[in-house]
Amino acid sequence: MVQIREATVHDLQGMQNANLTNLPENYTLKYYLYHALSWPQGSYVATVQTSSGEERIVGYVLAKMEDDNNDDPNAGPYIPHAHITSLSVMRTYRRMGIAAKLLRQALRALVESYGAQYVSLHVRQSNKAAIHLYRETLKFELVEIEHSYYADGEDAYSMKKDLKELVPNAEDLYDDDEDLLVGSIASTTAAITV
């Protein structure tokens, strides 16, 4: 049974291992720590229990908030938006919907915790499975092709998804008797069983 939960600092080594095992783009442990400390609600892990009862990370999503409109110089005033830095699922756990669940959970949290109105990502043109996930399953739109984006010279698709559908109604966020935020933010930290 696979569980999805918010990533913690204790998960960083397992996340890095999943990255090194599956992806050509690799990050230092310091980079993962930077994400975990800067945007703690933006990253999630998929875990399984080993036969010895230990938890093992089989996938993760690493996300962050962007602090400017770099991806659209004509955008005008800043619009809060997120970026998916990395998504990886171990090969033996693919085609189980884990990547989609990780992303959906991260997107909800980015909206609820940081007010993200849209999210962007880059994907290799050759990564047909990921492109299908982003375009067909999660309804990302192709924005542009960024030539020689990756270190090996491969082009990337720059993709974007509007998150307004995930923004709760303002009146739903406040308790009737108090000016306190309530609602589903706490639910993003609960484990989800896949």
TrEMBL record:
Gene3D superfamilies in the cross-refs: 3.40.630.30
Domain of life where this protein originates: Eukaryota
Domain (N-acetyltransferase) ranges: 2-164
GO cellular component: NatA complex
Molecular function GO terms recorded: identical protein binding; protein N-terminal-serine acetyltransferase activity; protein-N-terminal-glutamate acetyltransferase activity
UniProt entry keywords in alphabetical sequence: Acyltransferase, Transferase
Keyword Endoplasmic reticulum: no
InterPro entries reported in the protein's UniProt record: Acyl_CoA_acyltransferase, Ard1-like, GNAT_dom
Protein family: Belongs to the acetyltransferase family. ARD1 subfamily.
Protein's name according to its UniProt entry: Ard1p
Organism for this UniProt entry: Sugiyamaella lignohabitans
